[in-house]
Design a protein that fits this description.
45% of the residues lie in helices and 14% in strands. The protein has helices at residues 13-20, 24-44, 65-83, 86-90, 107-120, 136-151, 160-164, 215-231, and strands at residues 5-9, 49-55, 93-98, 126-132, 177-180, 202-205. Helix 5 (107-120) links the parallel strand 3 and strand 4.
Length: 232
C-alpha cells in the first residue's frame, strides 16, 4: 500500500499574519517557504505526485491591489528559484502550473512559467503541480465548452475518459489524500477543488494554519492515510 498523490489546500496565511501581529504579506511569504519544506518531505517519503492550490482565481482579482501585486511578485520569484533549484533536476521532477493565470499575470511572469515547465516537461519521477488562478468549477466548465467546440453538432459518446482528457489536470492521477490546513471547526471543500480527481479521496483536516504546517505534520497525515487504507 502506497501513497501516490497528495493535494494540499493551504489555508491560513492571512490569519497567521493577523495572529502574529505582522503584515498580511509576511503570511504569504512564510507560506511559500512552507511549500518548499513540504516538497522536500514528499520527495523524502517518495510520494510521486504533490499538488498545491497556490491561489484561486478570486484570490487574484478580488483582493487589494497591494496584496495581489505582492503575491505576483512572490510567485514570480519562486518560479525563478525553481528554475535554478538543482533538486528539481536531480529528482527528475516535472513542474506544472495550471489554471487561468494567463488572464492575470504579467508577461514577465508568464515567460518564467513557460520556461520552468519547458525545462521539466520530460521528467517523470516526481511531479509538483501548482494550481494558480484555479477553481474546480472553472476547470469543469472549460472542459465542457471545449468538448462542445471541437465536436460541434457531431454526435459523440460522453464517457469518463472523454471528460478527463479535456481537463486542465488530465495528466494527473486520482488524488489519494487531500490535506486542508487552517480548519477552525469548519472542514469543507472549496470551489469544486479538483472535483474529478478527488471523487474517491480521503481527507485530512487540521486547525494548523499553513505557515505552521510542518513537514512532520505532513508525514503524520500521510501515515494516517496509510493506516486508514489498511483498516479498510
Amino acid at each position: 500500500m502506497s501513497l501516490n498523490h497528495v493535494a494540499i489546500i493551504p489555508d491560513g496565511n492571512r490569519r497567521w499574519a493577523k495572529r502574529e501581529g505582522t503584515a498580511l504579506n509576511e503570511g504569504h511569504r512564510i507560506g511559500v517557504e512552507t511549500i518548499e519544506k513540504i516538497f522536500e518531505k514528499a520527495v523524502e517519503l517518495e510520494i510521486p505526485y504533490l499538488t498545491f492550490w497556490a491561489a484561486s482565481y478570486d484570490n487574484l482579482i478580488k483582493r487589494s491591489r497591494e496584496e495581489v501585486d505582492f503575491l505576483i511578485k512572490l510567485l514570480t520569484e519562486e518560479f525563478q528559484r525553481l528554475i535554478d533549484d538543482n533538486r528539481i533536476y536531480r529528482n527528475k521532477m516535472k513542474i506544472r502550473i495550471l489554471g487561468r493565470f494567463g488572464e492575470i499575470l504579467p508577461p514577465k511572469t508568464l515567460k518564467i512559467i513557460e520556461k520552468l515547465m519547458e525545462k521539466t516537461e520530460k521528467y517523470d519521477i516526481f511531479s509538483l503541480t501548482l494550481l494558480l488562478a484555479y477553481n474546480g468549477t472553472d476547470e469543469m466548465l472549460a472542459a465542457i465548452r471545449e468538448i462542445i467546440r471541437l465536436t460541434g453538432k457531431k454526435a459523440i459518446e460522453i464517457t469518463e475518459d472523454v471528460i478527463k482528457n479535456f481537463l486542465w489536470t488530465k495528466e494527473l492521477p486520482p488524488v489519494d489524500l487531500v490535506i486542508r490546513t487552517g480548519c477552525e471547526g469548519d472542514p469543507h471543500q472549496s470551489a469544486g477543488f479538483m472535483m474529478w480527481h478527488t471523487a474517491y479521496s480521503q481527507y485530512y483536516f487540521t486547525k494548523t494554519l499553513f505557515p505552521d504546517f510542518s513537514p512532520e505534520e505532513f508525514e503524520r497525515a500521510s501515515r494516517n492515510f496509510l493506516k486508514r487504507r489498511l483498516r479498510n
